[in-house]
Design brief:
Elements (H helix, E strand, L loop, with lengths): L1 H16 L14 H17 L9 H11 L7 H6 L7 H9 L8 H12 L5 H7 L6 H5 L5 H5 L5 H17 L9 H97 L3 H29 L4 H42 L3 H9 L2 H37 L9 H8 L6 H8 L2 H14 L4 H21 L5 H17 L1
Helix pairs in contact: 11-12, 11-13, 11-14, 11-15, 13-15, 13-16, 13-18, 19-20
Protein name: SAM domain-containing protein
GO molecular function: calcium channel regulator activity; calcium ion binding
GO cellular component, one term: plasma membrane
Length: 502
Amino acid sequence: YNILLVLKIYFMACALLSPDPCFMVTPPCMSEADRFSLEALRHIHREMDDDQDGGIEVEESVEFIIEDMQQQQTNKHNHLHREDQHITVEELWKGWKSSEVHNWTQDEVLRWLKEFVELPQYERNFKEMHANGNTLPRIAGNEPSFMSVHLKIQDQQHKQKLKLKALDVVLFGPPTRPPHNWLKDLLLIISVVMGIGGCWFAQVQNKASKVHISKMMKDLESLQRAEQSLRDLQEQLERAQEEKRTVTVEKKNLEQKMRDEMQGAQEEANRLHVLKEGAVSELSRLRYAEEELEKVREALKKAEQDMQASWSVPESLQLWLQLTHEVEVQYYNVKKQGAEAHLATAKEEAEKIKKKRSSVLGTLHVAHSSSLDQIDQKILEAKNALVEVTACLRERLHRWQQIEWLCGFPIMKNAGLPSLTSTLYPDPNWMMKSRVTTLSPQHYGMHYHRALDRQNHFPLLRVLLKLIFFPWLLTRSQILGLQDFYVLFYLVLLTVIVSYVI
């Protein structure tokens, strides 16, 4: 106790006799670290005391917090001033000596460096410096060369950040963590769940869209194959017509050759007849007669065959059948144009879908819109239309080829619809002529059936035509060797159709 009393008297005497600042404050500096801390606090006090009157007012504290410490006003000045509106250096020193931060250990300073300053890379430097709570005023006062030399911090941004954090704990006490915001956690969890759900939903929709689009592409490919099949069938029709023309030319050449052979047979028969008359003996005349009879018999057979082969129906029937074929071709062209329009529309929509698939938003938009179903419906309609047109073309080609073969004259190869119309309807004042020549293919069938309905007023004429035309067809089938019941039924049906046309 006596020693402590002596030391106290000694320090008081030193304070009275020496101008050292450490002995001019209470409590006095007890170590070299306290001396550096006091000097740093004096420097901080000078920075905060703008009017240099020796005290820090509330306004000066607020201005220092906002401008120098770059913090929003959060009533921190109340913690510094409390009831004192005029803080001197000694009061600032007393507040620091009684602060909890002043008594921080090295571990607490290192935890503050990592958790609040967020500069853990300088932890080793602080350990080598043996930094504790009493070292923080030197950092807060930005003592020259302290952070650069002793703490080895060269980054100016890190220096500034460390200074501001040190000022905060030196002036206002230990840092406090803000209260945990459960609402933010809830919003974060909801956002994460919504994000994961959105990604999952987008993935599912993208997969479904790809499957749907793949199915649509397959339908489009089948549609293209149907279109190619139609083109192939049309080419086949053109080749068949070309072969038909070739056969017609060969038939004409064969008929001419047969006529020449008949004429040669007749000349040979005449020659034999002359030889018969000039023969002297009865045996020679008999031999010549037999030869002449045989030649005449062969000539008659060839003549009969030639007559049967060259027999033809009335030209008007051929013209009416050709007109019927051309009208049906007009209907087919209209149907084909409609199918091609459906195909073009489906292709355009499919190309639009392909372009939209280039982006994720476009894929989602396609997946949620009804355009895929509409395009599927259009592709299905175009495919059905092409299949129907192809079947119609195949059936029409087969049917008219059979009719040409039965009738023995060309029908599909003709002078054209305008020429046939002008030939079959010569009267320009007749209503049917204007209807036939001016109506479009879309309306031709309606007026054509009306004309057929008007023919119902002449049943006797139709019956006579059937009675006249049916025996000819029956005879024709016998000549060609067509005794089958199916062929006879087809001929009867053809008779009825032709009678309606005529």
